[in-house]
Design a protein that fits this description.
Blueprint lengths: L5 E2 L7 H19 L1 H4 L3 E5 L3 E5 L4 E7 L4 H21 L3 E2 L2 E2 L3 E6 L6 E8 L8 H7 L2 H25 L24 H17 L3 E3 L8 E3 L5 E4 L6 E3 L11 H15 L5 H21 L5 H17 L1 H4 L13
Parallel strand pairs: 1-2
Antiparallel strand pairs: 2-3, 3-4, 4-8, 5-6, 7-8, 9-12, 10-11
């Protein structure tokens, strides 16, 4: 096994070596338990529920790891069931420039103590894009081209999804992403009161709709022109409480381009206040997740804390809070 994988949510620091050792151990155990499914493959990604291996034949498998707790197992099983079901519905579909992979099989793994199921699908041979470094290093025309393509892909996915995913409600969502703005420990009372006002505004104005549900660069691939060519990881796809949630992770430098293209193609008009609150909801969820997990990344907490505060300030008429008067009190 080669050490070429990446892990969702990990920062570029010494903890990556720890995750490499963790994955090496897991993969070694799987080689002994399910050699018929992993022999000759290479781990290329590790996520919250499993790992992805490349078979070097144009296909990859997503292997669902077996959680230790019964509650964790129920959630992982729900993610697997949702994802495979949606991928089968969408396989081979094209959304603007993005194609979803064909599924080539799935298997239960009762013989394994460390994984419970897997599915195999086409591998997209194009490249990852990292939005932060792309925005920092690309010229304005390249940024506009890419994010207009993002808007086009989302417009097509949402439009086709109205028919293809009309009856799909992802079962593993305890709280539908983008549907609530949760309080954040470490912020002072005024900040959390502003978050509560955002939450009330969101619940009063929210519009449901079809979402990919986890739309960010790790879940798609791009060609040399920075167009999205492959779209996958559908475990959260389907009917969502907030139709704007797929925009929550798009960086500010590209957001206007994505929205403009989306509105042109879909005919919809995006409520920018509601979108900003959706982004705040995402920031708060990321901060809470990293604060609550032993592998939480302080740099990610700091970055999302800063963007959350700036967005609260931009919504002064909604939140009643002045950014300058309420600095962060978190120790990051």
């Amino acid at each position: 096994m080669k050490n070429s994988f990446r892990h969702a949510g990990q920062g570029e620091d010494g903890r990556d070596a720890q995750w490499e050792r963790h994955v090496e151990k897991k993969f070694s155990l799987l080689e002994g338990e399910i050699p018929e499914y992993v022999s000759g493959s290479e781990v290329v990604a590790l996520g919250s529920f499993g790992l992805v291996v490349d078979h070097h034949d144009g296909t990859v498998s997503k292997i669902m790891l077996r959680p230790e707790s019964e509650q964790g197992m129920q959630k992982a099983r729900a993610v697997y069931t949702d994802e495979v079901g949606v991928l089968k519905r969408l396989q081979g579909r094209v959304f603007a420039t993005a194609r979803t992979p064909d599924v080539h099989g799935e298997a239960e793994l009762p013989q394994s103590d460390h994984a419970f199921a897997l599915y195999r699908m086409d591998k997209c041979e194009d490249e990852e894009i990292h939005w932060e470094s792309f925005v920092a290093g690309a010229d304005k025309r390249a940024i506009e081209r890419h994010f207009r393509n993002v808007g086009a892909v989302l417009a097509s996915f949402h439009e086709q999804g109205k028919a293809l995913l009309a009856d799909v409600v992802p079962q593993q969502k305890e709280i539908d992403y983008g549907a609530r703005v949760m309080p954040v420990s470490g912020f002072d009372q005024d900040v959390n009161e502003a978050l509560a006002r955002c939450d009330r505004y969101l619940r009063e104005h929210i519009v449901p709709g079809v979402n990919h549900g986890d739309f960010h660069p790790w879940n798609f691939r791009v060609n040399d022109d920075d167009e999205i060519t492959g779209l996958f990881d559908m475990g959260y796809a389907g009917q969502g409480a907030n139709a704007l949630y797929d925009f929550a992770m798009i960086p500010d430098a590209g957001l206007d381009y994505a929205i403009d293209e989306y509105e042109k193609r879909s005919g919809a008009k995006i409520d920018r206040d509601l979108l900003t609150i959706t982004q705040i909801s995402h920031d708060a969820a990321v901060i809470n997740w990293h604060q609550g997990h032993r592998n939480g990344d302080p740099e990610i907490i700091a970055a999302h804390s800063q963007s959350l505060m700036e967005r609260l300030h931009s919504l002064y008429r909604v939140t009643g809070m002045s950014f300058e008067a309420h600095p962060l009190i978190m120790g990051y």
